[in-house]
Each structure stands twice: as C-alpha cells, then as structure tokens.
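FAQ: What does the model actually see?

It sees only this:
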Amino acid sequence: MDFGRLITAMVTPFNAAGEIHWEETARLIDYLIEDQKSETLVVSGTTGESPTLSDTEKVQLFEFAVKHAAGRCKIIAGTGSNNTAHSIHLTKEAERVGADGVLLVVPYYNKPSQEGMYRHFEAIAAATSLPVMLYNVPGRTVANLSAATTLRLAQIPNIVATKECASMEQVTLIAAGAPDHFRVYSGDDAAGLPAIAVGAYGIVSVASHVVGAEMKQMIEAFYGGDPLRATQIHQKLFPLFKGLFECPQPLPNPVAVKYALTLRGLNVGSVRLPLIPPTEEEQDYIKNLLDM
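And it is asked to produce this:
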C-alpha cells in the first residue's frame, strides 16, 4: 500500500447544530484531492476531533469518505485509542466499510510501558488485514513510543508506517533502521522538510488543508533533485506552519485550520467542546497568516 508523500489529516465539518455536515464533507474531500493534491486522507484523527466523535459517527465518516473519494485517494481511518479492545472493534469496522488503512495513536493517559505499547499494537494488527500506521505524539499522549519499539513493530508485516512527532532524532533512527516496507512520516508540518532530509518518506499534514499544493511542490522539488527550491518553499510556508498552532498563543488543533478553511470559502463550521472557536484577535492573526 502506497499512501503517497502528502497525507492530510482531515478536519470534520460540522453544521450549526454541531452535527456532521455531510454535504460539506463531500466538498472538502473534493477540495483536498483536486486543489490541495492530497494523496491520502486521514479521517477521524486528532485534527478530525476524534475524541468528540461517537463510534457511530466515526464509522459513518469512514464509509462516507471511502465512497466519496471513489479511488481518487486513499482513506486512512483513525481507529486508535487507549483501549485495545475498542481499537480492535473500530479497526474491524474500518476494514468492513472499505478503508485503505488505519492510524493507531499511542495509548494516552494510562501511560503503558514500551512492552505494553508493543502488545497493544501487535494485537490490533493481528486483528486486521489492513495496513497499519502508528502515530507517536508524546505532546498529546504523554507516553513516547521509542525508536527501538517502533523498529520492533516494523517487523510485523502489516505495520507499514509511522507518523512521528517526537523528535528529529527518532525520525532519523527509525528511518535508518526500518525494513524496506516501512515508511516514516513527519507529523509536524514545520519539521516536514527536515524530516524528509533525514529519511522520512512524507508528511501527514494539517497545513495541507490550505497550502497542500505548495507542500506537494516542496516535496517534489526535494526528491526531484532541487533541494534549494524545496528549502525556499519551506521557508516561505514556515510562518503558516508555526502560526496555525501558535496563533498568537498556543491554539489547539484544529481550531485555527478550521477557521482558515472558512476564510477559503469552505463551510466546515466550528469545533466541538471542549475546544472553542478562535477569539477576534486569533481570527485576525489567522487572516494575516493566509495573506503572507
């Protein structure tokens, strides 16, 4: 399974009542594929507000995205949690409705050991034939999936990738030691090009909602033998990469990018509590980011 080099962690559009806005979800999928050049979409990940989606909503999203994408891009279903049995259940549902792969976050809050994390991912992978992408984001989960444990998991045939947000050191170690079938993706837009330079295959991005086409050019320039051009694009986009999360003080994902999408004419709605919409000051900051 080739998920490509640019993957968008897609927001979940909501209507004024806070329910999933299906018409706008279809429009967003088209926009991300056609305008922003996404090769794969992650549905119901952190950016999709997975903590506030019910299981029914998640499975409906998986199925809807698969049917609407209709082979134009791959669909990865966010089925990870800190409950192994629950993750297995959602993973089986994702497979049933035709997802191309699953994204499994490191268990959060209960802080398992490295062996506990290994067994968690091993059990889920054993319960499905789908390709599995691991997701290591210590800033959210508190627990860090080590490079050594990641490389151990990479020996399992259907664990094929990791979305790595811990450090450039871990990206380097994993990329250097992984088997040929296993790919490393940066989960941090600001570190995307540096990660590719040390061996990452691509980027799982939030900013690609609004600058995906430029990010695709950056990646293609690097792999096409023009690292200077790739660097220039990275430097141009860097304020946006950082600003979507620091706007002007730290702002939870996906608050900023959802508002940015509304400025681009996509009616994706607001966020669900406990997230809240951006303040007027934050809205002005995001407007200025998009004008840069």
